Structure formats: C-alpha cells, structure tokens
Amino acid sequence: MEVIPMTLREARAYVDRVHRHHKAPQGGLFAIGAAEGDQVIGVVIVGMPVARMAADGFTCEVTRLASDGSKNVPSMLYRAAWRAARAMGYRRLITYTLIEEPGTSLRAAGFKLLGESGGGSWDRSSRPRVDLHPLQTKLKWELSA
Predict the structure, then answer these.
(1) Could you state, in order of their start, the residue ranges of all structural domains in the chain?
(2) 125 near 116, Cβ under 8 Å?
(3) Which residues lie below 8 Å from residue 78, measured CB to CB, with a gap of 6+?
(4) 46: helix, coil or strand?
(5) What is the mean pLDDT of residues 77-84?
(6) CATH of domain 2-144
(7) Cα–Cα distance, 109 to 52 (Å, whole number)
(8) Of 14, 35, 51, 132, which one's alpha carbon is 20 to 30 angstroms from that of 122?
(9) CA dihedral for 66, 67, 71, 73, sign (positive or negative)
C-alpha cells in the first residue's frame, strides 16, 4: 500500500463511485490517493473550510475521504493530507464525521475530537437548496501544529 498523487477530478470520480453518503465536493485544494499495486483503494480531498468562521487562512478541511474498506487506508490518507497541508503552510486540519461513526482512523492519525457541531440544512429562503446529505449533528475533529 502506498500514497500516490491524485488529481481532484480523479478523486471526485472515486468519491462518487465509493462514498456511502455523500457526493464529491465541488472543488478542493488538493487530493491524495492510496493504491495497492495499480488499484486505487482510497482518496482524500482537502479544501478550504466549509464553515466560514473556520476560514482563517491557516485552516483547511478534509471534505471527503473514501476507501474500498482496505485496512489502515483512512488513517494513512489522513496523515498524508496533514503532511501536505503542513508543507503548504496550513496550521490546522479539520474534518467532520457522522455522530455514529467511531473515529478510529482519525484517532489513529492523531486527530482530537473537539465535540459536536451543527448539522442541519443548507436550505434558506434567500438561497434555496435541495439537501442530499445527512442533516444530523456531526462530530468535529482537528489536527493542529
């Protein structure tokens, strides 16, 4: 198993095929893949924080991580994302999980649980949206320098 370069387009296509409950994000800063031989077994996409209050210029967010279920792939990708983010000058990497997800890979990668966070709909009367994602409370995680 090894970390491989991945374009955002390739990573988005993988997420759309494999992720359990989300489509790929619209954009991103960078993507990283994991492979076993010639077979891609996971991807991570990192972008600017979705929540405006977290967008301080030194924070980025894992907006998607998807894998085929191979052991240790998520924690390997989280660590690779942190190394890349640090090399780019970011001081903090955040992500969110569903409340029923245990966070084992995040803990293995060194993330700290900050607590429950938001959830809910992006739909507003001034900006109508169709919610295609889970709306429940999430757990917020952080890795920082």
Answers:
(1) 2-144
(2) no
(3) 44, 62, 65, 95, 105, 106, 109, 111, 143
(4) strand
(5) 97
(6) 3.40.630.30
(7) 25
(8) 14
(9) negative
> How is residue 26 annotated by DSSP?
S
**Bridge-partner residues for 113, per DSSP?**
141
Residues 6+ apart with CB under 8 A from 26: none
Q: What is the pTM of this model?
A: 0.85
Gap between the Cα atoms of 131 and 55, Å rounded: 23
Q: Is 24 exposed, middle or buried (0-12, 13-18, 19+ CB in 10 A)?
A: buried
- The predicted model gives 4-11 an average pLDDT of 95
Tens digits of per-residue pLDDT, 15-42?
Answer: 989 876 677 777 899 999 999 999 999 9
Tokens of 86: 């640090």
Q: What is the DSSP string of 10-76?
A: HHHHHHHHH-SS-PPPS--SEEEEEEETTEEEEEEEEES-SSGGG-SSSEEEEEEEEE-S-TTHHHH
Whether residue 71 is predicted with pLDDT greater than 80 in this model: the reply is yes
Handedness of CA 32, 111, 20, 135 (dihedral sign): negative
